[in-house]
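Narrative of activities, Objective 1.

The group set out to show that a structural description can be obtained from nothing but a protein's sequence at a throughput compatible with the screening campaign. Below is one input-output pair from the validation batch, recorded exactly as produced.
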Amino acid sequence: MHPSVARLRPRDLGELIDETLALYRRNFALFAGIVAVVAIPQAVLAALSIVFGNSVVGTIAVVLLIVTIACYIVMIAALARTISCRYLGEETTVPGAYRSIGWRLALRLLGAFTVWALCLALSVAFFVIPAVVISIYWLFIPHVLVLEGCTVAHSLDRSWKLVHGSFWRVFFYGLVVYLAYLVLQIGITAAATFVLSVLGSGGTVVGGLLSAVVSTLALPFLFGAITLLYYDLRIRNEGFDLELLARDLAIRPPA
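Output recorded for this entry:
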C-alpha cells in the first residue's frame, strides 16, 4: 500500500495545523533549502542595489523586481512540488524539485499570477470584499498548475471549484494560518535582531540577509499549511485517498 494512504483522511483545522507542524519539523532542511536558493541571493542583490547608491539604484530596482517575481514563481512551484511529495511519502531533493519545473510550467504560473494580480487590483479599486473572495477562491492556483498539470484557464476554474462549498472553512483556516505565520515571522525577526544587537552587527546587507533568513524559516510553514488544506479538500470532495489507493493497487504485482 502507498505509505501515505493509511493516514490520508479528512481532518479538522486543528489536526491540519498539527500535521503541518509535524511535516515542517520532519523536512525542515529540505523545505528551508528550497526557499533559501531564491531568498538569500535576492536579499544580497537588494542590499547591494542600495549600497551602490542612487545613480544605479533605479535601474537595478527594475531589474531586481523582474528577477524577484520570476524567481519567486519558480520557488513557489518547487515548494509546492516538494511539500506534496513529502506529504505523500515520496522522496525528493532541492535540485530535483527545481529541475522538475520546466519553462512551460513557469510561464503558466506567470500567466496565472498576472491574471490574479490584475483581478485583485481591480477588486481593491472598487471594494475590499471582492478582493478577499478572489484571494480565497483562487488560493490553490499554484497547486493545481504544479500538481495537476492543467492550463492557466483551467487552474482558475479548478481552484474555484475546490473551494466552492467550503469558502468559510478555507477563509478561517487561512486566517488562523496566516496569523500563525506572522507570529513565527515576528518571533524569528525579534530573536535575530536581538542577537545582532548583542554582537554589534548591523547595516543594509545584514538586514537583507536577516529578511532572507526569516522567509526561509517561515514561508515553508505557510505554504505547507495551504498544501495540506488543498489535499484535505480533495479528500473531502473527490475521494482523493480512495483514488490514491486504487492507483496503488493497480500497479502492485499480483501475489
